[in-house]
Amino acid sequence: MSSPTVVEPAAAPPPWLEELPPRQIVAELDRYIVGQDAAKKAVAIAVRNRWRRAQTPDDIRDEITPYNIIMIGPTGVGKTEVARRLARLAGAPFVKVEASKFTEVGYVGRDVESMVRDLVDAAVNLVRAEREDEVFPQAEARADERLLDLLLPAPPAPSGQQPRPTAPREQVFVVEPGGAARAETDEDSRTRSREKLRALLADGKLDDKDVEIEVTPQSYSMLEFMPPPQGMEGADFNFTEMLQEMMPKRKKRRSVRVPDARRVLIDEELKKLVDMDDVVNESLDRVENHGIIFIDELDKIAGERSQAGPDVSREGVQRDLLPIVEGSTVQTRYGYVRSDHILFIAAGAFHTAKPSDLIPELQGRFPIRVELTPLTEADFIRIMTEPENALTRQYQALVAAEGAELTFTTDAIAELARLAVQANDRMENIGARRLHTVMAALMEEVLFELPELPEKQIRFDAARVREKLAEVVSDDDLRRYIL
């Protein structure tokens, strides 16, 4: 495995994770997630199958169904992280929903089709960000030109009146490339001044200057604060946007600092350079062919069938989910979207219920079932040392912001893992999330005193870890609230 590198948010693995072999997809996930090889293998096959489907003939392509997966395992073992990291690495639209939010539809729940609408919104934001990254240098150049026009306004156009005489200015001569000299014109002088301002702007020496710009104030229509009726989100929002487009755009002048004006102008230029019709078309295509919907807490809507009470609502949610998962057409604010080839990954602890408690039709739409194993003490040690976003590295970055250096010895990390496992055994087993609570208790005093600490070299070994956490671990009442 190559040495860890800093990954920029906009730099997804070129061009698609789907084009990598499953073994390489697993290797990419290994950079961030420890263990759970069975789950990584399943999602790698599911992602690669999308690329394989795109290579098939047209007459069979629509018949190939997605490789939908159910992940079964206790909380904190990495179910959500596998799906989220997969979508981030693939540059695919991704949305996470909780199945329990769809219970009691029409009363306190949500319409199940809203998950597809949320996915489309996520895709539009994703594609628009990519398009803006592509044209950002051009938008910056245009904004700088507009800003220079504000800092050095053009001379007023000549009118029919005779201009008043002005004092003669000192004659300046310009040497042309051929060696000939000519008198400098007003246009030459303005160009020279503009280039000086450009250099000052690039060096940040004009940041304390104020300029007047025209901005369109954000309008908050009352329609935006009114929730749309259940099942009418798409049509209602289209109607609202249509009314806003019909209303005249009001402009007002504001005096702002140069950096703020530059940011506003860049945003305006980006809107001009990015074709939203192209963004929407690309987004809808990505949703239909590359979108991933992660349905968490699926076990909360599973239960023994034919029972009265809340289970009736649970089975109703399952029946509402069924047409979305098996493939239907959903109306969104950007157009109609087919969910036939969206990849659905469901997850649940399934402590009190079993996957077989789901209605048979829904079970058939999730043919792949993967069991995630509980994390061990050795896994906790790996989680704190191996991933690129390891918890120890996150705290080192936070401490480095104060000009200090934080180090953990090998036995300190082993002690933290032991205490986390011990806390999970004595209380609820929340998996790797216990590491966050243990580390927060360990680092609380350091982070509070850090700005005033004279010693900027902070080192934790096993003895210091035991000393810091001894009271917390030994006191049952404290553990109840802190760990």
Put the structure in a nutshell.
The chain has 483 residues and is an alpha/beta fold. It is built from 17 helices and 13 strands.
Please give a structural write-up:
The chain has 483 residues and is α/β, with parallel strands linked by helices. The chain has 3 domains: 17-126 and 284-371, 3-Layer(aba) Sandwich (Rossmann fold); 134-152 and 186-279, no CATH class; 377-478, Helicase, Ruva Protein, domain 3, CATH 1.10.8. Helix content is 49%, strand content 12%. It has helices spanning 22-30, 37-54, 58-61, 79-90, 114-151, 186-202, 233-246, 258-273, 276-290, 310-326, 360-364, 377-383, 391-400, 410-426, 433-449, 462-474, 476-482, and strands at residues 69-72, 94-98, 173-175, 181-183, 210-215, 252-257, 292-296, 329-332, 335-338, 343-348, 368-371, 405-408, 457-460. It has a 5-stranded parallel sheet with strand order 2-7-10-1-11, with helices on both faces. It has a two-stranded antiparallel sheet with strand order 3-4. It has a two-stranded antiparallel ribbon with strand order 5-6. α1 (22-30) packs across α2, α12 (377-383) crosses α14 (410-426) and α14 packs parallel to α16. The two termini are 35 Å apart.
